[in-house]
Design a protein that fits this description.
Shape: elongated
CATH class of the largest domain: Mainly Alpha
Structural class: mainly alpha
CATH topology of the largest domain: Tetracycline Repressor, domain 2
Number of helices: 12
Oligomer: single chain
Strand content: under 5%
CATH architecture of the largest domain: Orthogonal Bundle
Distance between the termini: 56 Å
Order of helices and strands: HHHHHHHHHHHH
Length: about 200
Amino acid sequence: MSSLEAETTPRRRGRPADVDPDRVALLALRHFAEHGYDTTTMDEIAAIAGIGRRTLFRYFPSKPDLVWGGLEPVVGRMRGVLETAPPDESARDVIARAMAESLDLDAEHIEATRLRLRLMASDPTLIGFGVTRLGANRDILAEFIARRLGVPSDSLRAQVLADAISSANFSALLWWATRTTDDDPAATAVAALDEVLRGLPD
């Protein structure tokens, strides 16, 4: 079916079954890397992805959303580990496992992650756009740390530790994307974790 036919055919409720948001985002990220982020339009991305403009905006309301898309499943996997970890597993090991499992990505997702992080590193305004999304990761870390310490999740210690870990994780991933060529972002994230988790009890 052509893009025009896709746009004129009556739609069923919900998202079109033939649109893969991850694939659209990867095509966009590749185009940004080759042709520039600022000079690329959403119309160009729609054409590259072979979908209509309205369909693209249904999945990605803006160009920054194309860059930040895909974060929710990563945060979801991290939350799953932190919320189900056995109490006898050390806090460090739980967080390290959560990072490793959340960043267990196939080749295309590794490529997309590297491209989006490189773009963020080159354009600080994109980082600002995603601050609230990063906050979701920090909040689930604060909840886990608070449970282990027996303190409220909004206590100073839980908040500071969660901020430190979350910030170190993002900084490490930016470093991985811009300074390395390996396909293991989790190893870099866990190494950064060990740099800041000194003093957190088991």
